[in-house]
Amino acid sequence: MGVDTELSGARTRPGVRRALPWLIVAFWVALIAVAGPFAGKLGDVQRDRAVDYLPADADSTQVAKIQDTLPGGESTDLVLVYHRDSGLTPADRATAGEQTAAIAGEHRLSAVPRGVPSEDGTTLMYAVSSTEPGQDEDVRAEFVGEIRETAKGGDGLSVEVGGPGALNVDALEVYGSLGGPLLYTTVAVVAILLILIYRSPFLWLVPLVVAGTADYLSMAVAYGLNRGFDVTISGQSSGVMTILVFGAGTDYALLIVARYREELSRFTRPYDAMAAALRGCGPAVVASSGTVAAGLLCLMAADLNSSRGMGPIAAVGVLCALFAMLTLLPALLVLLGRRVFWPVVPAYGSVPKQRRSLFAAMGGSAGRRPVAVLVSGGVLLGALSLGAFALPGDLKQQDFFTTTPDSISAMETLGTAYPDSGTQPITVIAPTGEADAALAEARGTEGVVSVERGRSGGGWTELSVVSGSRPESAGERATIEALRGTLDGSHVGGPSAQQMDLEVTNARDLKIVVPLVVLSVLLVLIVLLRSLIAPLMLVAAVVAVWGASLGIAGLVFEPLLGFDGTDPGLPLLSFVFLVALGVDYGIFLMHRMREEALSGAGPTDAALTALRTTGAVIASAGLVLAATFGVLLSMPMVALAELGFVIAVGVLLDTFLVRTYLVTSASVALGRAVWWPGALSRKPPAAGSDAPSEPELASTR
Asked: What is the pLDDT of residue 15?
């Protein structure tokens, strides 16, 4: 907005007009030079340990934190799985014994590994636990890598290294590999779409370069938030931040460039045209980004560490994109002049060619039968929402990846070979003074097979509990709940307990964050549109889109994409992003509709003109945003792929159904009441402007 003020005020001062764009570019060069070293450190503070995702106050979180303080720090727990389909031979067992002995000789283990054979004789598993790697992720990865180098099979004997420690290392490797491919794929997708939209060999580069600059700045700011306020940064949140910078930033660029192209036909100087463009669309862009940021910041009320950290990180991405698109983008476009639009250069005084407009035709149908269109669209969204009941159950550990790393393969082998026994420990942390009593109570708990005493320190003692049921089965969950109900003053954790806490906390966060998001977005819209009805209409529309998107996901996830579970955080995160981003397009449309109404147009004319003038831009922006989130479908993490799918589908529904048909038809049906109780709701319509004229209707057919 500061750029808008300076540009408009400098219209009669040629010296300022020539210097200001160069000063803005110089400012950005200096800003990136300062931010560069900090942006490069973002990867150093990215954390993807279990404690970084867990609920802040949950039992399993307390276990993970206390384990860090025990002698040796956090333990790395592995399971070595020796398997032969036809049954293990004596030579196989000898190999397993030699390799586990070698591992015990090379590394400091918590106990000597003991083999546990399966009843069918095909499998032998060894539990390996060590505090040698500590909390350092690189050291832990090196430790697991060395174990895998030592434990090797051959000639029909397979050896897999699984367990929580191996699963964490494999997950960290996947998260670590996201940054480059995610960025490159996003840039490629945005570049292709911009080339198709602009049909210019040069223009597409400008918003893409500006978005890349904004992404670099957002990385530095995110690093600062981590250092200054201890904001959690995970691979998921940093990836989503990049998607938002390019997706939302490109949306803002499309709106600004479209308005700038319009103004170039009215002004001789690009500087003045840009000033007029920012005056026209700047408020909508600022309000749009403010609404998105406000919605995202509501995630700070979540109890889940990963969700709470994603709120400010994602908001940083949106605000950095806004800052760049309102300053650097206009400066570059002004410096490049009209020639950047080549081969279709908008000339001063030119009249845009009147082409048959798809959006005019769509608006015409909504204008003729607004109630029928509105009811039909509502029924369609409601029917699609029913598909949400077909969503698969909660995502399990073995379903985290779209590929099958060694740790997942080990879990699958164990699940087949040991169908009725636990293959990963439940960790209990008891006060040292009550450890003996806790051990006895744990042994007497239904579903518990064995309990072993582990490390002690800092007033706490570690107990390793083995359940008689498979990991994440109903039986193991019942055992965990029984332990929590029996062991007063102790904490129960471990991988399965963590998943249980994630599910419970996500359900709690959904009840807390969703009303906050709706309220914050509604308040911003009321202030912007100076109306109560229009904001309620927009919010109701995006909530309906969210339900329909989850419904489509329920019909697609398992049958077509092969996802065997749904990430517990999907409903909350998809709601926040779809409501915040979906309202974006509603703001673009309603802001233009308000402009037309203020100029004297009747409700129907204002609605149809707004759709005709902004429809193409909103469609282009929706395609870009959907495509950028669609990039997440190519990532090897099921949770990211599911989030990307739901948001991409929701954005497309919002763009081509809700904004085009439902919001337009609702605005026509409500007439001036859509602006109630603002002044526009009381202004009498101009004669003959309440309905489209015959020539206007004919032009839309």
From this structure: 66
